[in-house]
Amino acid sequence: MAPQFGSEKAGSEERRQMLQMRTACLVEGGTLILLLFVAVPLKHLAGFPGAVKAMGPVHGLAFLTYFWMLTRMVSSGGWSRGETIKLFAAAMVPFGAFFSARTLTRRAALASPP
Amino acid sequence: MIYLWLKAFHIVSVTVWIGGMFVAAIAVAALSAPKSLPGAPGPVGIAQPDIIGAVRRWDRWATSPAMLLAWLFGLAVATEGGWFGARWLMMKLVFVVALSGLHGILSGTLRKLARPDGRPSPASGHALPVIVGAVVVIVLLVVLKPL
After folding, report:
1. In chain B, which residues have their Cβ closer than 8 Å to the Cβ of A60?
2. Cα separations (Å) of A104 from A84, B60, B87?
3. How far apart are the CA of A63 and the nearest CA of chain B, in angstroms?
4. N or C, which terminus of chain B has less Cβ within 10 Å?
5. Of B67, B71, B112, which has the smallest distance from its Cβ to A75's Cβ?
6. Are B95 and B138 within 8 A, CB to CB?
7. Percent of chain A whose predicted confidence (pLDDT) is above 70
8. CB contacts < 8 Å between A and B, how many?
9. CA-based radius of gyration for chain B
10. What is the total count of domains within chain B?
11. HEC-encoded secondary structure of chain B
């Protein structure tokens, strides 16, 4: 019974990790959208550079957190090189985070039942 | 005055973060050694899962929060001091991102080692010299500000 309990625990931990990763991914994607489609136009069209100055570091922190969580998740195993590159590349593209979030939701569902 | 407080908290966070990375790197290197078998007793008769569990707990509750705080306080110091745009800081950030990535790799490797069939990647045993090298470069950049 003990190994089964251990495997259930590992599955639940993996599921929690995927869901945390999805949150980090959506926060990173959201701050990128705010930076590119709100702060940058405000700076260039409305002459309000403060928006970029505020959003730039926020997005930087969100990206760094996502990058760190991605390396942690990939290093723990179970991800192919192609999937890893897709998850990393999607973080650079506006709205790419939504594709990554879908992948992570699917993997969370496969990890274990809630 | 606020600048000095932010700098002090940044240094404290960095010290805990890098110290924790050393712990994780030493644990991964020791557990990656060929003679290290799953379930085998560790130093002074401590079982391997206990060592991995203790290192992982420290990583989760001390090292990772310290890393997040180091980023936050570092950002605040750079903003308060008007350092953004300085070339030494941009170079330092490259090494900070590399260290953060390496910490992610070590955390993930510890998680993998906690599984019964977990095996580390061959490269994960070489993290220690990389951490030392990055820390040396960062300290030189910050103290000397050569660029």
Report:
1. 75
2. 12, 21, 37
3. 10
4. N
5. B112
6. yes
7. 88
8. 55
9. 17
10. 1
11. CHHHHHHHHHHHHHHHHHHHHHHHHHHHHHHHCCCCCCCCECHHHCEHHHHHHHHHHHHHHHHHHHHHHHHHHHHHHHHHHCCCCCHHHHHHHHHHHHHHHHHHHHHHHHHHHHCCCCCCCHHHHHHHHHHHHHHHHHHHHHHHCCC
Average pLDDT score over residue span B24-38 = 77
A69 → closest Cβ in B104, B118, B124: B104
Write out the residue range of the structural domain in which residue B129 sits: 2-144
ipTM: 0.83
Q: Name the residue with higher pLDDT: A46 or B40.
A: A46
Residues from chain A that touch B72, judged by Cβ atoms under 8 A, are: 61
Tell me the CB-side half-sphere exposure of residue B21, using CA atoms within 13 A. 28
Hey, is A53 helix, strand or coil? helix
